[in-house]
Structures
1.
Amino acid sequence: MTHRLDGAEAAVGALLGAGVTRGTPVAVAAGGAGSGIAAGGRCWAVTAPPAEVVRRVGSALSPRWVWWSARRTARPLVAAGVTVPACWDVAAVHRLLHGGSSDAPAQVWAVARGLDPQRVPRSGQLDLLRDTDAEEGDAGDPVRPDGYLRPDWADEPLRTPEQAAAWAALALELQGEQAEALASATDPRRPPAQPPLAVLTAWSESAAELLALELAATGLPVDVAAAAALIAGHAGPRPVDEAAALASRQARDAVVRDLLPDGEQVDLRNPAQVRAMLARLGFDVPDTRSWRLEPFRGAHPALDALLTWRRSERIATTYGYGWLDRHVGPDGRLRGEWRGCDGAAGRMTASAGLHNLPADLRSAVVAEPGHVFVRADLGQVEPRVLAAVSGDEGLARATAGADLYSPVAEQLRCDRPSAKVAVLAAMYGQTSGTAGEALRGLDRAYPSAMAYLRSAEERGRAGKDVRTYGGRRVPMWGVGAAVEPAVAAARGRFARNAVVQGAAAELFKMWAATVRAGLTGLTGARGAGGAGQRAIVLCLHDELLLHVPEVSAEDTATLLHDALDRTAARWAAGSGVRFVADVSVLPRWSDAK
DNA sequence: GATTTCACGTA
DNA sequence: CGTACGTGAAATCC
């Protein structure tokens, strides 16, 4: 029988009695108006909600919070401004270990228990042929006799603290198994004094999921008037009704159509019609993508007009008034949903256009009064990552300076642009172009790095999974090696890229997690990014954007550099690889160089 | 109505 | 024939 605790203070006492100290894994889940907690193989139902329990227990004991996923459990914590310095996200670590993008508990559990994830039972499933034996047993047990989770537990909010306690106990069980699996995956090259990289990665991937929730809550400061003015420059003034919107659209189209013979007939938004029109003008193109039309820009006035129209059309549709209205709150913050990792190599993703904001619009991203942005981006991160993950000593030596490509060019006896193209071509699996000679030079100069890439490519071609340096499994699609050559080649390029891009994403997230921890000083309320607080407001693959009070700009810049040094010392320990960040303080995002 | 294709923005 | 993502409009498929 689960013990019931009355209030968060009682939870502190119970956990203290169970021997919980700083860093001990303690699982938490929500159930009804209360919560469930689990530690050291025991679990308790608590009458207080998770936000209160995490706040009180956190300040008293500083455990490592364990949850099925931040998305399900930590949202109310973030909303309440509760600081969580360290956590373990079972779903995030599941994705690290097994690949994919699922965070559904039923899937995570099935894979962990060696059950077929395809056969996970679903809520409300009415299957006359179902195996009723498997579903009998104690409805108070989240696990069915056949080993799968009960769908009503897995898919729906739990109704009582007792259920939450059982749920937390399962999360703790999985966390223990995951930690063990990760700890056994050690790299002999790493110094034995530190936790294995895969464990460090599990921590930072978990932190990234929490950061994703915080980014969604905090939002990116936007000067709405400036944004509207930029949009007006492309799409015209904000239309008052449907008729005005149509008129504005037609006026934009007319600029291009007037330059065309029979322009009235052409729908500019229909690629087939545009292609036919281009053919009539004498341009035979396989498609109408702008990079393909760009060379002909000067050949006919309509082409220049069309390409300009496309830019405006992009702003008008994707980043127009509707976008502002949907995603920018009355507080002038642009908010989207964030994920800590995508389904492929593990980069962060964001919706609401946060990751693909046109450069023009960046001038509307403006710090609030009394605040500035501190922007930091990793320099030449992918070749430096390649040097670290492949253990290539020659390439590691090339990371000593601020520029990696100059020493590579010297080594290859070619010019810097050629060296850069060759290195990028090697990492991305480029097959066209004229990087051939330089690529052969790379093979001679950096054999370990090139072998590492080739090995990933071969695995990909054969349909085998690859693993990133931090231990993320990257599955291949298709079945086995018997696929069309084009598929094998695509998998090879993908795998070659994934081991670099994925490892870079892991380094980036560890850096971001370290910066995040440094911002809070591991204590005190975060306050959901409110005024006066320092907060990460954007993560962009190799770039961090922080919004901070003006007076703390210099301290924050120092923090970003220090955090990178500390991250690199752990992540790339023993490799001799240097990582560098460019840090600047800006009133608006577009002021970056 | 849901899915696919084309296009294009960012890294 | 470099990869990844999210998005919107139109075409296409039920």
2.
Amino acid sequence: MDKLNVLLVDDHPIFLKGLVEVIQDEFHDFVIHSFSSPELAFDSAKSLKYNLAISDLDMPKMNGISLITELKILYPEILTILLTMHKEQDIMRSALVNGIDGYVLKDDVVDELVIAIEEVLKGNKYISELEVINEQDEQIEELKSLTKTELLVLKGISDNKTSKEIANDLFVSLKTIENHRNNISRKLRLKGSNSLLKFAINNKNLL
Amino acid sequence: MDKLNVLLVDDHPIFLKGLVEVIQDEFHDFVIHSFSSPELAFDSAKSLKYNLAISDLDMPKMNGISLITELKILYPEILTILLTMHKEQDIMRSALVNGIDGYVLKDDVVDELVIAIEEVLKGNKYISELEVINEQDEQIEELKSLTKTELLVLKGISDNKTSKEIANDLFVSLKTIENHRNNISRKLRLKGSNSLLKFAINNKNLL
DNA sequence: GCTAATATGAGTAAGACTACCTATTTTTTT
DNA sequence: AAAAAAATAGGTAGTCTTACTCATATTAGC
């Protein structure tokens, strides 16, 4: 097997170093060139033909998908793997649409990345398994089932308002707000003292 | 100079590998033991005395501050450096309150970590982006005026426990916990419905 | 040893939230 | 137009939290 030129890009220098180690340990026939920015990586790709590119998704200025799209224009046959913190399905799907061959979650174990590289080299696609959905994620899914008014109430709660204050804000009765609270709690499967308040504070960023 | 036992903890295996490389490259007299979870790290610390501990802040279950607090109980003279994505002031302040010696942002360049280690070994404190830290937020300052038991109660509240549950945990009367809550609220100048709960959740990372 | 701080526990009252109900009006969907 | 969903509001009971007061035993500091 010939030597393969491998392009490695991550803006976190320490992570990048770990990445080089992990990959070189496993694939002795790789000639790895690592870069801490997509711009430097792309510059290098202008003068050196790469067979495989492995890039972080979230980087300043140019993101991983843009970089890989550019690289594909230069070398249409280049194989590509994206590394990311995101486990969202739509980003993954978007990655595949953009001609990415592999998609690996950053906090997965080393084995996962190795398998991904092997599969991609064989010509297959590889996508990290979706994380098991936990309780919290389920609840966030349920957020979509809330009505406009319920979301308004939840927003009020997350803004440290009492039911009485929210009632005054919305010009309705305290009892109406209490009913909304109950309905929200039922939809989100929340039980017990102040569980709704806790949820609202912890998910303030979503509201 | 004697060999130094260094404990390294990060739940991202690839980053952890990079970390080992970077540190070993620079400090040849370090005997580095790396772990992917605070629990494993702490178990190891029970049978081996470490001189320096470098840990990620955000990890599942036990966080970096808790780990380092526990390690300090075992080895009061241990030097400690926290790695984190967060540049928030309150977390940094909390780190300092908890006796952490160094605080380095994960995406900083390698040199920064090396400098941090060198400074901490000299007995100095090292904090990334010093200028961010300034004394504001009186409430968080007032945290220092809380007694041990009051902090325990506050921790319980931030862990979503009711007064009744905390009372059971600590084998005291519900009334005692209610009194502690009142004393805490007075010290932190908190007033109104569930203000203590809101404070506890919002400052969970400090407790 | 004396004093202050801490931890413990109780009494009482009020306010807030939860957890069920039922019911009417308004809006949206089919 | 009929049916479904959403918003409104009230009842009742129970739990939890806040906000005071007071009291006592233990611990820590001077």
